[in-house]
Amino acid sequence: MKSIKYLQKTPISMLLSALLCFSIVSTKAVENKTHDINEKPWNFLVIVVDDLGFMDIEPNNPDSFYQTPNLTKLAQQSVNFTNSYAANPVCSPSRVALMTGVNPARLKATDWFHHKNGKRLTGHYQVANSIDYLPKEALTIAEALPKSYQKTFIGKWHLGEDEKLWPENQGFDTNIAGWAAGSPKGGYFAPYSNPRLVQGEKGEHLTQRLTNEAINTLKSAADKPFLLVLSYYSVHVPLQAPQHSIEKYQQLTRTLTEQQEFGQEEQVLPQLQTVRKVRKVQNQPAYAAMVEQMDSNVGRVLAQLEQAGLANNTVVIFTSDNGGLATSEGLPTSNLPLRGGKGWIYEGGIKVPLMIKVPGMSKANTMQSTPVIGMDIPATIYHLTDTKVVNLDGQSLLPLLLDENATIERPLFWHYPHYSNQGGLPASAVRLGKYKLIQRLETGAVQLYDLDKDLGEKNDISAQKPEKVTELYRLLLQWYQEVDAQFLKEKSSNKKPWQPKF
Q1: How open is the CA angle 342-294-456, to the nearest 5 degrees?
Q2: Which DSSP string corresponds to 426-459?
Q3: Under CATH, what is the fold of the domain 41-408?
Q4: Any idea where the Sulfatase N-terminal domain is (predicted)?
Q5: What is the pLDDT of residue 6?
């Protein structure tokens, strides 16, 4: 079994241990209950949608322009986490976290994975060192789960260019459509340009095809427990959906002025002269159609679980890899009241949907406001399967699933020392309780927000709360040292970026 070699524990590790005591006690208390309720091993269906914003689905936003009745039904059967976060504001690092339970900063994988000849954006400074693959020594959930499990990966992988780094070589028995690319090469309609997907008939839609593959996998599930990761390429650009679905939303779309439809966001890339626009209104018909197509196909998969008699023994986890795309590439969605979007360390870039259904154990149709993060998903799967994995940054969410009044007190950390093509600034952040501290990595300046009062992160209260700034900043500095975080580098000898002093 592979493992991660970590640095020796620092004081923050001891603080984290203390903060997690409640959850550890709760975990031990429910172990016997797990076995009593569930005589058979759990199956796991993990659905990951690409670029789906927290506000894009009706369970989180009843006023959403997008229609998601199947996700509304799933929410009624699940615990809906209303403060769930991706581990990074862009896809590859957050997927590393979902696959390993390890913070991507610890693995030096902090930006989306580029082609071997690709170049990262630079602004005032050179960006930090970052690898472009999921390291082979990192243990994936597919590798960690018992050999008795049938492990299938379907859809977007984007965790390494070399075939040796694709799902079939990272613990999965079957890989359908998972390879180096982070978007559907050739578009969403067949013929596809995907070396791990058998060609479909011309005009076939990729989201429906991946769902068909998932349904076939469930139909062939025998007595072996399974892990099925269904990782849709939707709703990533290009914006393509069946025409009848687009036409439906074209009839619903309102005619708005430029000022009504778009606002302005900070511009951090010096090479761009224009102000960065951000979408204020969910109004894009092709994107709406893509969300609806995703929702209807999730419904098909969940219906197959019922039809196959697997629903009572299958844990369903639904999430996204980062926030909605609001400031670039067509500005397809609005995350308001959340600020920013994909590529930003603000809430719009990292807050994502998360619903978890554990049949017979989790209380249906409940909301859980405890802040949680992508690394917690592998940790929860390991807890439910009695799989022992050490050196995780994530934590089992089972106590929160069993008790809607439970909570976990711990800091959550993000590190993005890059300039995103969506306009996001190089930044790190820590959240503890209702407070979130953001550090701008060009200058070291900090911003503090009270997310209970200021979900849109409009009012920096760092000057009014110096003691809270000191508390969170110390946590962040200690965490930088623990994970050996990488930082911006100078572009010229006369202009140096901020660097931490330990």
Answers
A1: 30
A2: SEEEEEETTEEEEEETTT--EEEEETTT-TT---
A3: Alkaline Phosphatase, subunit A (3.40.720)
A4: 43-386
A5: 29
